[in-house]
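In keeping with the milestone schedule agreed at the kick-off meeting, the structural modelling team has produced records for the first pair of proteins. Each record is given below as a sequence line and a structure-token line. The laboratory manager (R.T.) confirmed that both were archived under the project's standard naming scheme.
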Amino acid sequence: MPVQLRVFPDTHQLVDSVVTGIIKAIFSELETHNRADIVLTGGGVGTAVALRLIAAIPQTAVDWSRVNLWWGDERFVPISSVDRNDVPVVSALAELPPPRPTLYRVGEPSPELSLSDSAFGYAIDVEKMFAQKSDSPGFTVVLLGLGPDGHVASIFPGHPSVDSALTCLPVDDSPKPPAHRVSMSLATLSNARHVWILASGAEKHDALDKLMTEDIETTDIPARGVRGQESTIVWVDRQAAFGAN
């Protein structure tokens, strides 16, 4: 199935359109399954989507108790650290009355929990969900931010994790700090109905251009290694699509 490119005049319209698409996908999933599972992503546009989605919860007719939120990757830092992707989302969810989505969080460092232990524990949660939805793709929508170097989640160009068969990976040498992270593998992220890649800003233009070029390898642009089973859409603003001009 070909990758679709959708270009929006600005980030605000991009975010609104992605949130509308997520809610439609959740409605569709809950018509045939007991749960919908959405993978969130960090970064500027990813966090904006997550917070806009949570703000929309009271205005929708979705049974949010049947919706589960995940992270494609998370920084392995204390659970209250502002470096974590999930902190703004946890705060926003806490302000909502029930029913609320269930948020799956990556464990924090402790004497009892190493980076590898945290990745293994998160993988167990993911695999349990996959087993419950064995008749369909595991995730409903996977959101991924496109890095300026073409990375997604914490899978970076040239790293052996590009080809990993693990469900979740302990990453101890991220070139972008903090170095320690837990990331779903490309194969895990592709176990989804829809994979939607987000890019905003002129600094993403070169990576976007390579992502949409057929002869670029996944080892060079890891974002090329994630595909949805029903759709793969790249959502971008004009600056990402056309560069600084």
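The second protein of the pair:
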Amino acid sequence: MKQLTDALERMDVSYQPEMILKFQKYMESILEWNEKVNLTSITEPDEFELKHYVDSVIICNRPQFQSAEKIVDIGTGAGFPGIPLAILNPEKEFLLLDSLNKRVKIIQELSAEIGLRNVNFCHGRAEEFAHKKEYREQYDLCVSRAVANLAVLSEYCLPFVRVGGWFAAYKSGSADEEVQASRTAVTLLGGDIKENYRPELKGFDLDHRILMISKNKKTLSKYPRKAGTPAKEPLK
């Protein structure tokens, strides 16, 4: 875990040795399960460490993350970025949501094995869970590395964020065109794109952007639209 520990030290993020052991065990277990269930296309440990771990924790030194107490990870997949963030921040409360039940059961089991106590898991679609009272606008921060257009992703994620909270979207490439094309949709959902930055870590090849979207007003009750609609008919 040298890449991970180097990155944490460069970001001035504190960690304990037992946390690094959890990272190691979780990676080994995911790769073992991956031989039976498709959890990740990244199967080489060094690449896994960089693209799943370092990339996930890159927001740990951001004030929006540091001040958040309740965090939701939408479309968590094999547990990223939620699991790495939860390992490093046992004082914060996390909810990981994914639409594939088999995947949710696996990461829930693996999280229990490494002793995570600050994570809850839900199987379901964001379009449905975002209309449930116990989840809607209940979170200080939403994070997502899900592969979707920003307008679509914002419709999934912003309804979970309380007014005054934030949505952090992990995106590949420059994302400039996507940001411009999605501004109207983000505003309609109650958000405002405040930052579009490339995390700079000397010695690390991370071609990613983090889009920081503030939640300025409540999301209209009709959003998100019914399951499947946001992806088929993105807001413009």
